[in-house]
TrEMBL record:
Organism annotation: Desulfoglaeba alkanexedens ALDC
Gene from which this protein is expressed: argC
Pathway(s) of this molecule: Amino-acid biosynthesis; L-arginine biosynthesis; N(2)-acetyl-L-ornithine from L-glutamate: step 3/4
An annotated GO BP: L-arginine biosynthetic process
MF-aspect GO terms: N-acetyl-gamma-glutamyl-phosphate reductase activity; NAD binding; NADP+ binding
Protein name listed in UniProt: N-acetyl-gamma-glutamyl-phosphate reductase
Lineage of origin: Bacteria, Pseudomonadati, Thermodesulfobacteriota, Syntrophobacteria, Syntrophobacterales
Gene3D superfamilies xref list: Dihydrodipicolinate Reductase, domain 2 (3.30.360.10), NAD(P)-binding Rossmann-like Domain (3.40.50.720)
Keyword Nucleotide-binding (UniProt): no
Semialdehyde dehydrogenase NAD-binding domain: residues covered: 3-141
Amino acid sequence: MLRVAIAGASGYTGFELIRLLSTHPRVVLSTVTSRTSEGQRLDEVYPAFRGHCHLTFHGTDPDRLAEDAELVFTALPHRAAMGLVPELLQRGLKVVDLSADFRFRDAALYEMWYQEHTAPHLLSEAVYGLPELYRDAIRTARLVGNPGCYPTSIILAVAPLLAQDLIVPETILADSKSAVSGAGRGLSLTTHFCEVNDGLKAYKIGGEHRHTPEIEQELSRLAGRPLNVTFTPHLVPMSRGILSTVYAELKAGTPPESVDAAFASFYRNARFVRLCGSKALPSTLQVRGSNYCDLGWKVDIRTGRVIVVSAIDNLTRGASGQAVCNMNLMAGFEEDEGLREAPWQP
Ligand SMILES: NC(=O)C1=CN([C@@H]2O[C@H](COP(=O)(O)OP(=O)(O)OC[C@H]3O[C@@H](n4cnc5c(N)ncnc54)[C@H](OP(=O)(O)O)[C@@H]3O)[C@@H](O)[C@H]2O)C=CC1
Ligand SMILES: CC(=O)N[C@@H](CCC(=O)OP(=O)(O)O)C(=O)O
């Protein structure tokens, strides 16, 4: 059994990690940490775990984590994560970091969007934790930068089309809708019930959202040249889920059937990507609580554009499920170990 710990376990991604890890057949969850809940029982902070998990929260002490675990999930805010991760690696632990601190290859790009990087020497060894793109590198990594939720949904939607050179890369537009849990458990006016319920709004449009450079980093690599994308996030009154609709112009002379073939071939071994074509388009309800990314698409022959619809659960595939999948690969387990539960559609 692999001993694992979660730093920042009192937040939403921490909760989702506990839910998945407490039934994982190859793992023992030994330690959960939080500053504000230190000393409290987990099932007092999250009564949903009554009868399932009897741990008590500790403070985030790297020595204690090294005694109790072989791999740590850091589910902390950006900046806090890069303070802890080097301490854990020095003590011989493996780390899956859920923040943005280890997603970028270029420290200057991270610093342009976030803040000064205090562990830039680790960026070249950190592996971007999207298994469909980096499965082999993840297997041997000691540090994985788990992708952002919006980037996961968008990169998976267009990767096959860029890899097969079927679209004009500069024409990619991504229109995404996220549930409110994407903003974390902390209270803020933006995510207040009355500010969100019954409404729908765009935010940080026109290249202002910090996920834009992350999406561009990965899509540029697939395209083989630097590219910019138009990314428009929206906040919707749901608890879980992201639906991204991605548009791109097909290269002249591309037959619509080659789009179907590109998805089928790119994802032929992808355990957690379900291809829906244009018949039964994806919905956030159909992936809820699961690590699936469902993809549907259609070529609009009148405009020459392909439209791809991508649905994930932001807390599972967009964060903690993907993190568990990465842990499975790093530990040599089956990729879907602990992630086989069907989605929860009512
Ligand atoms: N929510 C989502 O859908 C997604 C989130 N992520 C990323 O995952 C990480 C966790 O997100 P999420 O669970 O939503 O966030 P939450 O705000 O819900 O939880 C954050 C956790 O970190 C702890 N924490 C907060 N501030 C600090 C600090 N300065 N030092 C140490 N610990 C701190 C909190 O507990 P305490 O204050 O008690 O210490 C809590 O346990 C973030 O980096 C987020 O960007 C990634 C993908 C999707
Ligand atoms: C709805 C909402 O607020 N979503 C968050 C992104 C979700 C997330 O946590 O992304 P990171 O992992 O990169 O932090 C936002 O727009 O900033």
